[in-house]
């Protein structure tokens, strides 16, 4: 079996429960990129487990099994079955949801999302890319989908030296599919939509936020209109803003399909918020669900400034007693940092804010303790007191 020897520091990282070993902690390699390797201690060559090996990424090893347990195709099949059974137990109010969430399902670098009778997969490492035939055959056996699409176009694949591509791996996948989430029907473009088509991780947050929605609603960074459509059913007026013309067109189609009145507008949210402030507009419910402002550590400073500005503007536009739903999907901005930024915005807006609910990504996107990279989505539901 191919093998990799790791340093004492790498061994300590494994004992701490984190499944990643970085290149700097690899002492010796007897393997090729994409191999399942036996991981050994530098001290005496003791076996520590099995992992996916990458010869290109800074993350050299992604652990699959520990100790003497062997990682093979049978293990991958068992893990897929366990992940699918767990989602079934959640009784999710949707036909679109995540089936496999990478490390948190002990299948590192693998994403599998369900969209009705179709599946979308992403293999984000050399090792998982090589295992795709096993993954696809297992998914066909367990779920009998009409089609399986590979959305292997994230930038992360470049870091692995892998080609970025979108391709049908099994069956047929139409240009768009119809799914239902929390009682709302969506037309989804699986090949070109964000992530694998929809932002599935916000489903439960949208349902929770709807309980507080009322009056005049402003949904910023609306994408397909998820928050606008769910909260709009409880609001007197709904405005949705996104910089993408294609996204706004889809919001309008989804709104018409669901019978929800939405004024969907193309615009830069930062500019629109300043414009609303100049014209003394006021809202009772505001949603801020921006894309990741900090895609790496170098971008954190600028991201914090961006988060503060939109939250400051929103709090100024919000009526007393109103609700602000504010989110961050930037892993590099942790919950404490995000909370501090929102607090600073409240101070500058000269208002008092209480936390009604503090939320995260949906239950089908589980967080593994000890692996902070699996906790990326922060969602605060806030009430402006005055």
Structure write-up:
The longest helix has 18 residues, at 73-90. The N and C termini lie far apart (66 Å). The chain has three domains: 3-66, PUA domain (Archaeosine Trna-guanine Transglycosylase, Chain: A, domain 4, Roll); 73-177, RNA methyltransferase domain (HRMD) like (Transcription Regulator spoIIAA); 199-384, Vaccinia Virus protein VP39 (Rossmann fold, 3-Layer(aba) Sandwich). The strands form four sheets. A seven-stranded mixed beta sheet has the order 16-15-14-17-18-20-19, sandwiched between helices. Strands 2-6-5-4-1-3 form a six-stranded mixed beta sheet. With 386 residues, it is of the alpha/beta class. Helices cover 31% and strands 31% of the residues. The mean pLDDT is 95.
Keywords:
11 helices, Transcription Regulator spoIIAA, six-stranded mixed β-sheet, alpha/beta, 3 domains, seven-stranded mixed β-sheet, 31% strand, Rossmann fold, Archaeosine Trna-guanine Transglycosylase, Chain: A, domain 4, globular, 386 residues
């Amino acid at each position: 079996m191919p093998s990799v020897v790791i340093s004492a520091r790498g061994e300590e990282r494994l004992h701490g429960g984190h499944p990643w070993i970085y290149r700097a902690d690899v002492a010796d390699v007897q393997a090729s990129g994409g191999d399942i390797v036996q991981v050994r201690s530098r001290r005496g060559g003791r076996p520590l487990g099995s992992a996916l090996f990458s010869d290109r990424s800074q993350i050299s090893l992604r652990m699959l099994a520990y100790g003497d347990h062997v990682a093979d195709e049978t293990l991958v099949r068992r893990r897929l079955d366990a992940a699918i059974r767990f989602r079934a137990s959640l009784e999710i109010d949707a036909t679109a949801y995540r089936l496999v969430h990478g490390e948190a399902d002990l299948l590192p670098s693998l994403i599998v999302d369900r969209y009705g009778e179709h599946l979308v997969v992403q293999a984000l490492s050399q090792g998982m890319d090589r295992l795709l035939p096993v993954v696809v055959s297992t998914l066909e056996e367990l779920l009998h989908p009409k089609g399986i699409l590979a959305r292997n176009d994230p930038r992360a694949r470049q870091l692995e030296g892998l080609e970025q591509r979108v391709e049908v791996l099994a069956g047929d996948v139409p240009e768009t599919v119809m799914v239902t989430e929390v009682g709302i029907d969506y037309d989804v473009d699986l090949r070109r939509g964000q992530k694998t088509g929809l932002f599935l991780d916000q489903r439960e947050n949208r349902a929770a936020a709807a309980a507080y929605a009322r009056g005049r609603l402003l949904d910023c960074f609306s994408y397909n209109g998820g928050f606008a459509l769910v909260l709009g059913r409880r609001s007197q007026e709904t405005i949705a803003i996104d910089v993408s013309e294609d996204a706004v067109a889809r919001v309008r189609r989804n709104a018409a399909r669901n019978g929800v009145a939405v004024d969907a507008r193309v615009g830069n949210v930062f500019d629109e918020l300043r414009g609303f402030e100049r014209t003394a507009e006021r809202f009772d419910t505001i949603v801020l669900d921006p894309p990741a402002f900090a895609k790496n550590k170098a971008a954190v400073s600028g991201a914090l400034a961006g988060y503060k500005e939109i939250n400051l503007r929103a709090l100024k536009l919000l009526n007393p007693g109103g609700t602000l739903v504010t989110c961050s999907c930037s892993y590099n901005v942790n919950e404490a940092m995000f909370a501090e930024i929102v607090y600073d915005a409240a101070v500058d807006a000269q208002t008092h804010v209480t936390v009604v609910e503090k939320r995260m990504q949906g239950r089908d996107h589980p967080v593994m303790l000890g692996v902070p990279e699996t906790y990326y989505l922060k969602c605060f539901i806030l009430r402006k007191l005055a």
